[in-house]
Write a structure and sequence with these properties.
The chain has a single domain, classed as Rossmann fold, CATH 3.40.50.300. It contains 9 helices and 12 strands. Helix 4 packs across helix 5. The longest helix is centred in the middle third of the chain and has 15 residues. The C terminus is likely disordered.
Amino acid sequence: MIIAKDISLKIGKSVILKDCNLKIKPGCFTVVVGPNGAGKSTLMKTFTGELQRYTGTIQINGKLIKGYNSKELSKIRAVLPQHTIVNFPFSVEQVVEVGRYAHRTTQATNNKIIEEVLALTGLSEYRNRLYQTLSGGEKQRVQMARVMTQIHDTSQAPKYLFLDEPTSSLDLAQQQSLLSLAKDLINKNVGVLAILHDLNLATQFADEILFLRKGETIAVGKSNEVIKKEIIEKTFNHPVKIISDNGQKIIIPDIGIHSKSENLNTITYGHINY
């Protein structure tokens, strides 16, 4: 489990994060939502070890994150950023194989894992294609395969996958496909943390949701307990309607109406104790 307590970060006089608390549990799909500039990506970077200027503590599997070196972290967590640039003429298979670098396993082991992941992601027929010839959605699927190979391991230790706005350049079907792949991973002792802008995708896939605004937690808890009209409106400063379709909540913004409420008092639902 990853346990973050009282995470705060300031740049000059600007407060980017303030006293954020969150647990990322193996077997759980956690989503962070909030408006632009809420601090979502910054919070994720503290979890991945990319940022170390924060105050507070982050433990991964019972050990402070600052006690891991980069190679050790690479074996237990993988990150899919918003955009990934590949400047070399790599094939799809070569890009996916990069995910195995930290493990130093045999080529036979690597090949077996790569075959499995290419099949899972529907990329087997693309393996010899040059990465640069793919569409944006196809490239994102290849990058998803790469991070899946990175956290593929025979050990029983929990692994973690971080997705930073992974669906921003994908069409509807591709969004469903990629997030379904991530959701399936939680059955393999993997904890997933995703930043999403689409609240309806969040309600569909998230087990737990953190609502963040201006670096502060507005609400955190089980998805069905924090998807509330007042929480969404306070987070995004915009009125919404919530309807239900066969038990699935659907969030609809009120077009042309804008709330002036700036009340940022924290509301916490659910049963997450820190």
